[in-house]
């Protein structure tokens, strides 16, 4: 007899909490949402350009895109414990090195890429795999709650780091990031390691539904359906990802102080948290692509508001951008499990998330180039609105899920 959602959550809450904390301290959360805070201080200190700083995000996104399928295959085959241990240690060491970096941009880029590359197992590929293995009835909510770790970190980290940068320097900011990763990873592994040490293969409970819950028995990498999903998530990432990076520079360009801009930036984290929890719960009840399309349309509305009314409308715009990012994070994992099943979950999720991460990395550079060409962010805002509308149409026309065995 299958457990109810409440029974699953009551029995397996330590796994959910461990995944939540781990993702909060991982490469896709604190590493991503803290980057924009260092743009101004580092360009002022070393004379680097914003395009150079955007290149770091692009290169990191490309590296995640390349490595995510391999990380997914690795955790499918060998489990997640050892990759997580290595990756968290790499992140901590990387941020300690960044706190002592000199004026060489090449060295700064190299350290960032090593941090992201070796730390890539701390991203959603590992933690959504853990959740999808352990939850069935409450899978949507559990995925949302896990990915909400990124939203919580996006709320907590910017004000703390911005305050340390303002009162001391950007070097203390990187030390704060290292400390946050250390705390989150220690608590996460303490909860997960005893429960996952022997977990390598797909559990019996989920194997029972595999043949009916999968759109494809094996990952067909030439499938138009797979690449349609990938292209859709790429458009979403291009549309909203760059403004998590450029929100603070856009606001400070308009005369807002760094502390106030960081508070607006933190609104993205608040909305991301709401979006992930809300979308996750709704996906257990409503066709998931409809939830995703609604969130994408809200993000387009938020960007249009900023384009029409300026930075005075940055707060509602940031909230709507965060909602979209939160919902899309849930949808990638949920659609992977529902269309492709769990036996190849890590590999397929790695492909889709990797392309999404590539889009998140490319978006700041595209927006930076458009801003430089137009000497304002208006063109970039309208460009993002347009591609989000295309993504919404694609999501609204996805096929229904395969029928589960009753």
TrEMBL record:
Keywords: Membrane, Transmembrane, Transmembrane helix. One of its GO terms (molecular function) is transmembrane transporter activity. It holds the Pfam family MFS_1. InterPro entries: MFS (IPR011701), MFS_dom (IPR020846), MFS_trans_sf (IPR036259), Proton-linked_MCT (IPR050327). Residues 14-403 form the Major facilitator superfamily (MFS) profile domain. The chain crosses the membrane at residues 12-33, 53-72, 79-98, 104-128, 140-161, 173-193, 225-248, 260-278, 290-312, 318-336, 348-367, 379-398. This is MFS family permease. It comes from Rhizobium skierniewicense.
């Amino acid at each position: 007899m299958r457990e109810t959602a409440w029974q699953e959550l009551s029995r397996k809450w330590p796994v959910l909490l461990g995944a939540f904390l781990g993702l909060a301290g991982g490469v896709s959360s604190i590493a991503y949402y803290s980057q924009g805070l260092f743009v101004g201080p580092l360009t002022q200190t070393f004379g680097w350009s914003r395009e150079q700083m955007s290149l770091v995000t692009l290169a990191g996104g490309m590296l995640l895109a390349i490595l995510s399928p391999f990380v997914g295959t690795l955790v499918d085959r060998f489990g997640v414990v050892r990759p997580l241990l290595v990756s968290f240690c790499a992140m901590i060491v990387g941020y300690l090195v960044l706190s002592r970096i000199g004026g060489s941009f090449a060295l700064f880029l190299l350290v960032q890429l090593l941090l992201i590359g070796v730390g890539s197992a701390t991203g959603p590929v590992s933690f959504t795999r853990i959740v999808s293995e352990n939850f069935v009835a409450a899978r949507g909510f559990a995925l949302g709650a896990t990915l909400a770790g990124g939203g919580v970190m996006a709320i907590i980290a910017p004000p703390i780091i911005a305050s340390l940068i303002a009162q001391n320097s950007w070097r203390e900011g990187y030390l704060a990031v290292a400390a946050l990763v250390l705390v989150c990873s220690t608590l996460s592994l303490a909860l997960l390691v005893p429960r996952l040490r022997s977990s390598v293969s797909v559990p019996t409970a989920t194997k029972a539904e595999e043949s009916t819950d999968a759109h494809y028995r094996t990952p067909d990498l030439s499938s138009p359906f797979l690449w349609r999903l990938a292209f859709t998530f790429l458009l979403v990432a291009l549309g909203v990802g760059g403004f998590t990076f450029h929100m603070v520079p856009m606001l400070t360009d308009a005369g807002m102080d760094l502390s106030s801009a960081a508070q607006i930036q933190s609104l993205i984290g608040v909305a991301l948290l709401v979006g992930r929890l809300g979308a996750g719960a709704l996906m257990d009840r409503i066709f998931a692509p409809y939830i995703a399309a609604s969130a994408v349309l809200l993000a387009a509305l938020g960007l249009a508001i900023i384009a029409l009314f300026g930075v005075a409308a940055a707060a509602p715009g940031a909230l709507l951008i965060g909602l979209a990012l939160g919902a899309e994070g849930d949808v990638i994992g949920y659609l992977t499990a529902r269309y492709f099943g769990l036996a190849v979950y890590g590999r397929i999720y790695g492909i889709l998330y990797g392309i999404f991460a590539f889009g998140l990395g490319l978006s700041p550079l595209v927006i930076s180039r458009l801003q430089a060409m137009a000497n304002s962010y208006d063109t970039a805002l309208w460009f993002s609105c347009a591609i989000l509308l295309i993504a919404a149409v694609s999501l609204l026309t996805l096929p229904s899920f395969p029928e589960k065995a009753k």
